[in-house]
UniProtKB/TrEMBL annotation:
Its main location: membrane. One of its GO terms (molecular function) is transmembrane transporter activity. InterPro entries: MFS, MFS_dom, MFS_trans_sf. It comes from the Bacteria. It is a multi-pass membrane protein. Residues 28-492 form the Major facilitator superfamily (MFS) profile domain. This is Drug resistance transporter, EmrB/QacA subfamily. The chain crosses the membrane at residues 27-50, 70-87, 94-114, 126-146, 153-179, 185-204, 216-236, 248-268, 288-311, 317-334, 355-374, 380-405, 417-438, 464-488.
């Protein structure tokens, strides 16, 4: 629902006077804001709209998982390639291409006649986002000289926080007012946003500077994509009368492909992932805790709306209220937490925030059978939002403070990719967990299937399936706190200046 790390200047983000005229910079800033709104609104609203998408398309739980994972798969595996393409062929050109592809895929999502068609369109959306996401900050950084860049990034961050906070509320209101099929309108809104951004780029931007010697690691991108595909496919499992069985051969083949991707990075002069960064224990710890915490976050963002809307029959507009505190707390408290991490180091803020998230998810696991939306879900999600607000900016401090100054952009990109991969694995594996527990506790249909919401055994089994997901999320968030406490430093690392 939010960007995974606080805004940071991309690697190689230097002022490029050939990109646009000085008077045109503000228009490129608006283009970057509009493009960011595409990704932020899409990510936050899909969580609320997924139960309606599943219901109107008669999708199984596995298909619903892939409606989320198809997007995460292509985005997480190609996001580092997207940044390299911008450097090689021009930021404005690749950024604009990503927007156009994202918008076209959004139209495909809005018109999708079947679950499989929607899954395919979502995968194309992820490719567009992989080109678009790295380009937003890169465009601002190249358009503005150093003395004006901080203010421009601040405007971008504030606008992004606003759209992220409003996304669930607007999406929930649309679905509540116009019915389940209105989820198609949510994808269609990307057309004017993307069209406006593309027009501004066409009118005010040139191609800008290019790095002619920049090489694109297509082998690594292919191995990473294929590996993550088979891992997610295997972990999603196959539906069976006793639950969902993980396809271990597929998952194992995916791990082998992903291991081949890691091995390939050792022998390239310009790899997607410079493995030498992981020799720093702080950098490794920061990415490990990121994986644990964002696994937990994504699992909850995916399964909680499905349960609340599909089984508890809470209207979408009210369900959206549970997710608003996450965006509000992060946008309002992140600057303060960033300053605090700069003063005392990231260890204590991240450990404290992760522990708060673990407590919140533990409350949700305990309270699920009570179906107490106002007295349990809303307070717990507010607590989780407060915890994430303690983590986001200090996590950037930990990641970028652990590497030399000229590699901060690469480090931030790797951490962003790690969090997306965590989400991919979370949706796949947690779905198998929820479905297995659901079947094991007497469920006769499919986890959180809205059409059978009135059946008492179905409701009880769905609550039990969610309890398993929430309990595992709480344990992983707690593991994130432990890794932060023992793996990070009390004072910000000085390695970046060495």
């Amino acid at each position: 629902m939010t960007d995974q790390t606080a805004p940071s200047q991309p690697e190689g983000a230097v002022f490029d006077s050939t990109l646009c005229a000085a008077r045109s910079r503000k228009y490129l800033l608006v283009a970057a804001i509009l493009a960011s709104a595409l990704g932020f609104i899409d990510g936050s609203v899909v969580a609320i709209a997924l139960p309606a998408m599943r219901e109107t398309l008669s999708a199984s739980l596995s298909q619903a998982q892939w409606m989320a994972n198809a997007y995460l798969l292509t985005l997480s595996s190609l996001i580092l390639v997207g940044g390299a393409l911008g450097d090689r062929f021009g930021i404005a050109r690749i950024f604009g291409g990503g927007i156009a592809l994202f918008v076209l895929a959004s139209i495909g999502c809005a018109l999708a006649p079947s679950p499989d068609a929607l899954i395919g369109a979502r995968s194309v959306q992820g490719i567009g986002a992989a080109l678009m996401v790295p380009g937003s900050l890169a465009l601002i950084s190249a358009a503005y000289p150093a003395e004006d860049r901080g203010r421009a990034i601040g405007v971008w961050a504030a606008a992004s926080a606003l759209t992220t906070a409003l996304g669930p509320a607007i999406g929930g209101a649309v679905l509540s007012l116009f019915g389940d099929t209105a989820w198609r309108l949510i994808f269609a809104v990307n057309l004017p946003l993307g069209g406006g951004a593309l027009w501004l780029l066409w009118r005010y931007a040139s191609d800008g500077r290019r790095e002619q010697g920049k090489r694109i690691d297509w082998l690594g991108a292919g191995l990473a994509t294929a590996g993550l595909l088979f891992i997610a496919w295997g972990l999603s499992g196959s539906e069976h009368e006793t639950g969902t069985r993980i396809r271990w051969p597929l998952a194992g083949f995916g791990l082998l492909l992903f291991a081949s991707f890691i091995a390939s990075q050792r022998y390239l002069s310009q790899p997607m992932v410079p493995l030498g960064l992981f020799r720093n224990p702080v950098f490794s710890a920061a990415n490990l805790l990121s994986f644990f915490l964002y696994y937990a976050l994504t699992a909850m963002l995916f399964f909680l709306p499905m349960l609340i809307i599909g089984i508890w029959q809470v209207p979408e507009v009210l369900t959206a209220l549970a997710f608003v505190p996450l965006s509000i707390f992060i946008s309002t408290l992140s600057p303060r937490m960033g300053r605090l991490a700069g003063q005392i180091g990231p260890r204590r803020p991240i450990a404290t925030g992760s522990a708060l998230v673990a407590l919140a998810y533990g409350v949700l696991a305990f309270a699920a059978p009570l179906q107490a939306f106002w007295s349990a879900v809303i307070p717990a999600m507010a607590l989780a939002g407060l915890g994430m607000a303690c983590v986001v900016a200090p996590l950037s401090t930990a990641v970028m403070g652990a590497v030399p100054g000229d590699q901060t952009g690469t480090a931030s990109g790797i951490n962003n990719a790690v969090t997306r991969v965590a989400g991919l694995v979370a949706v796949a594996l947690s779905g198998a967990v929820a479905a297995t527990v659901y079947k094991g506790t007497g469920g006769a249909f499919s986890f959180a299937e809205a059409s059978e919401a009135g059946d008492p055994a179905h409701v009880a089994a769905s609550n039990a399936g969610f309890q398993a997901v929430a309990g595992s999320a709480a344990l992983l968030a707690l593991a994130s706190a432990v890794v932060a406490w023992f793996g990070l430093e009390d004072q910000a690392s000085s390695s970046a200046s060495q």
